[in-house]
Design brief:
- This protein has 4 domains: about 140 residues, Beta-Lactamase (2-Layer Sandwich), CATH 3.30.450; about 120 residues, Beta-Lactamase (2-Layer Sandwich), CATH 3.30.450; about 80 residues, Orthogonal Bundle (Helix Hairpins), CATH 1.10.287.130; about 160 residues, Histidine kinase-like ATPase, C-terminal domain (Heat Shock Protein 90), CATH 3.30.565.10.
- It is about 45% helix and about 25% strand.
- The protein has 15 helices and 18 strands.
- The radius of gyration is 50 Å and the shape is elongated.
């Protein structure tokens, strides 16, 4: 079948798959334009549009992707009753600066979107190959070559010079290096083609580069080559070349033009092997889920170890605060004892009344020191021994009143008023009376000690069906918010900034443990400078199953 018949058949296929009512092939060169093939209209119907294209061509070229955005194009489409338009360059002969474009017109507004383009691009690649053969067979094309025989000889001489220089370098390169003529045929390749494509260098001479490209990539590669020739600038693109045995080999191709007297003679290209890179990327994609899983496990492990680290740091801080507090208590007491003792020893003329007064201070401070030591020894023993819980039924109001009486002397000394609100009838609970008495006494004592003179302490008992609620509130100095989570920890001392209120930081630990042993609940609400409220909830009937309960 003649080549022009093949071209007409290919154009017929393109018109069907693109739903194009009209279309034609337009040839452009420096001397003018020519409509090579047309359907659905006459040459004269498109004169206005062709004149515009030729003007843009002479002015330096145009972008086919943005051509339809020119102001005059929509106006022309209205005249032709077309809703959408498509233009694309198919072939370029650099030696004659000759381009061939295809133009398509459709009645559908969104016809030439990506989906349609993807359908017709493979067929356009075939059409491009057919047009190349057709143009090369035309008599005027061969005549022009005869007329320019001298130029061709000069061009061949230049290419021969390129080849001699090229051979010195290329065969030592691990990359695929090759030269194409202006029509896209291989002129020369280096020895790397044997290892990559399984061809001998001489086997590729005179063959079209596009014949070794995957069919699906041919349109984009053809466009890239034409762009290099038209822009006359180096360009990089990816391409998969077909080996002698039909396998696909990926390359990154860097392509640039070969010039002589401002005329393009061909292309020089370097192909870098991408197979290792693609294999590494594939392996990396496989490793990504594993990496994600490892990162997740690391986050979990960090989250697990972070509280442990915080606990260790907090324990170290508490240990330091405890040692610091105890050292201060011991040092203050010993300073008083040593100071008064030295005064008695160094001053023989000291009055007997003064000696007696000093001896009382020494004895008082010694007892205070002994009491302090015993207090911490008892606290240490509580960690090792069992606390005996003796369950009895008793009246809660009477127990609280006894605790109030125990602190009444200190409250009177500071002019603090203690109010006690409770139900008229006695509230009876089943619990350990002695340990709860110590709890209530300790809470009331704290309220009185940390409340300034003329302050108030209020105690409220609320009787519910299954539990009883004890509220002990004061108008004292309060507990800073940052310290509240730690007040029930052993040896923790609230950072009150008050040095004249003795505190060892063990009382509330004992309170919390006793409440926990009774399956109760204790909470605190406080604000620095505005007082503190402790709320204790206890079940009326004891849930303790054994009389012996470990403090830990």
């Amino acid at each position: 079948m003649p080549i022009h018949s093949l071209i007409e058949n290919t154009l017929h296929i393109i018109s069907k798959i693109s739903y194009s009512r009209q279309g034609y092939l337009l040839q452009l060169n420096d001397h003018g334009y020519e409509v090579l093939n047309i359907w659905g209209g006459r040459d004269t119907d498109f004169t206005k549009l062709n004149d515009l294209i030729f003007k843009l061509f002479k002015a330096g070229g145009f972008d086919t992707e943005k051509f339809s955005e020119l102001p005059s194009v929509p106006e022309f489409l209205k005249e032709r009753f077309a809703a959408s338009f498509f233009i694309k360059d198919l072939i370029f002969f650099s030696e004659r600066n000759l381009f061939i474009y295809i133009l398509l017109f459709s009645d559908y507004p969104d016809e030439f979107k990506e989906e349609t383009k993807n359908r017709i691009l493979p067929v356009l690649s075939i059409l491009s190959h057919q047009l190349k053969i057709f143009i090369e067979q035309r008599p005027d094309f061969n005549q022009n070559r005869t007329e320019n025989k001298y130029d061709s000889q000069q061009d061949n001489k230049t290419l021969d010079e390129w080849e001699s220089k090229f051979k010195l370098l290329v065969n030592t390169s691990p990359d695929l290096i090759f030269i194409l003529d202006s029509s896209g045929k291989f002129i020369l390749t280096n020895d790397a083609v044997k290892s990559y494509l399984d061809y001998q260098p001489d086997e590729l001479k005179g063959k079209y580069f596009l014949d070794f490209i995957n069919v699906k990539d041919s349109p984009s590669i053809n466009l890239s080559l034409n762009k290099v020739l038209s822009d006359k600038k180096p360009l990089k693109f990816n391409a998969s070349l077909i080996t002698k045995y039909g396998q696909s080999f990926p390359f990154e191709i860097s392509c640039s033009t070969i010039f002589s007297n401002n005329k393009i003679l061909g292309l020089l290209a370097v192909g870098r092997d991408l197979s290792d890179k693609q294999r590494y990327e594939t392996e990396l994609q496989k490793l990504k889920p594993k990496l994600t899983e490892v990162n997740r496990l690391l986050k979990i492990e960090r989250a697990r170890t972070s509280p442990q680290k915080s606990v260790v740091e907090e324990l170290n801080r508490l240990k330091y605060d405890f040692i610091s507090g105890i050292s201060h208590e011991f040092r203050t007491t010993l300073a008083s004892i040593i100071g008064f003792s030295e005064t008695i020893v160094s001053d023989p003329d000291l009055a007997e009344s003064m000696k007696e007064e000093f001896m009382k201070v020494i004895m008082s401070e010694g007892k205070r020191l002994a009491k302090l030591i015993n207090y911490f020894l008892d606290a240490s023993d509580q960690d090792k021994e069992l606390v005996i819980i003796n369950k009895t039924n008793f009246g809660l109001q009477r127990l609280i009143q006894d605790a109030i009486n125990a602190n009444s002397e200190l409250a009177s000394y500071k002019n603090i008023k203690i109010n006690f609100e409770h139900p008229e009838e006695e509230v009876f609970i089943e619990a350990d009376k002695d340990s709860l008495s110590q709890v209530v006494t300790a809470l009331i004592n704290n309220a009185v000690r940390f409340t300034d003179e003329l302050g108030r302490v209020k105690i409220i008992v609320n009787n519910f069906v299954r539990e009883v609620e004890i509220i002990i509130s004061d108008t004292g100095i309060g507990i800073p918010e940052v310290d509240q989570p730690y007040i029930f920890q052993r040896f923790f001392k609230v950072s009150r900034g008050v040095s004249d209120i003795p505190s060892t930081g063990v009382g509330l630990v004992f309170v919390k443990q006793i409440i926990d042993l009774h399956k109760g609940l204790i909470t605190v609400q406080s604000e620095a400078g505005s007082g503190t409220t402790f709320l204790v909830k206890l079940p009326k009937r004891s849930k303790i199953e054994k009389n012996e309960v470990n403090f830990e």
